[in-house]
Amino acid sequence: MGMFELRELSKEYKRGGRVFNAVNRVSLSVEPGDFISVTGRSGSGKTTLLNMGAGLLTPTRGSVFFEGKDIYTLGDKEISFLRNEKIGYVPQGQSLLSNFTVFDNVCIPWFLFKREGHVEGRAFILLEKVGISHLASSYPKELSGGEMRRAAIARALINNPRLLIADEPTGDLDVETTAEIMRLFSRIAQEGTAILIVTHELDTLDHGNKTYSMDAGNLVPHTA
Ligand SMILES: Nc1ncnc2c1ncn2[C@@H]1O[C@H](COP(=O)(O)OP(=O)(O)OP(=O)(O)O)[C@@H](O)[C@H]1O
Ligand SMILES: [Mg+2]
């Protein structure tokens, strides 16, 4: 079994009395070091898929296995702990807490489960890695969109996750910054963390080792 495995995952939603599968029987296996990218049109089910994978949204059918554990059989507390410890998540859109500095935002996942020891050094290194250490004491509202995304990436990495899930982490960024962030993801993958991202077609060219697209809830592998 893969380190992270989606098995026949489906999510049904209802709209206007009609039931539809936003995600339709998706299976995917992810190993350490994988860099997997998913493209697809707006509304095709990408965020729904990532949210189920991250333990944030209960599937209608199917399972998510993380290191051999079926995560939706775990209790709320266990699932939160697993997510906090093993899965870094960069949500779509702005997700920083506005009353905290960039530095404190990055540290929050560390303190959620009352960890001992010093996180400050690691937070600073991550901010340097994503290129915004000069903004450590700024507040989110003083940042550009790209800077906020980079802060969210640093935050997702603070607990040294086994898997990093990112939902359009480069949406609305310029080409150069996008390439920089893709290189950063590549490096992280090479260091052994698996990467699963939703992104635009061209962004992962030269980077992702497995690419898929979502088409009306179906995950379709790209063939070279
Ligand atoms: N809570 C909900 N209730 C009903 N329908 C929903 C719900 N959440 C999402 N949907 C619908 O499910 C489909 C998939 O949504 P999802 O957010 O996964 O798409 P996406 O591929 O991430 O789109 P985008 O690229 O715009 O972010 C869409 O048709 C959306 O309207
Ligand atoms: Mg989305």
By CATH, the superfamily of one domain comes out as P-loop containing nucleotide triphosphate hydrolases
> How many β strands by DSSP?
10
CATH-assigned fold name of one domain? Rossmann fold
The CA-CA distance between the termini, in Å, is 25 Å
What is the strand content?
A: 25-35%
Query: Helix tally?
Result: 6
Question: Can you write the helix and strand succession as a string?
Answer: EEEHEEHEHHHEHEEE
Cofactors and ligands: adenosine-5'-triphosphate, magnesium ion
Which consecutive residue ranges, at least 5 long each, have pLDDT under 50? none
Helix content: 25-40%
Structural overview:
- The protein starts with a strand and ends with a strand.
- The chain has a domain of 153 residues: Rossmann fold.
- Helix 3 packs parallel to helix 5 and helix 4 packs across helix 5.
- With 224 residues, the chain is an alpha/beta fold.
- The protein is built from six helices and ten strands.
- The strands form two sheets. The chain has a six-stranded mixed sheet, sandwiched between helices. It has a four-stranded antiparallel sheet with strand order 2-1-4-5.
- It is 31% helix and 28% strand.
- Adenosine-5'-triphosphate (ATP) binds next to strand 1 and helix 1.
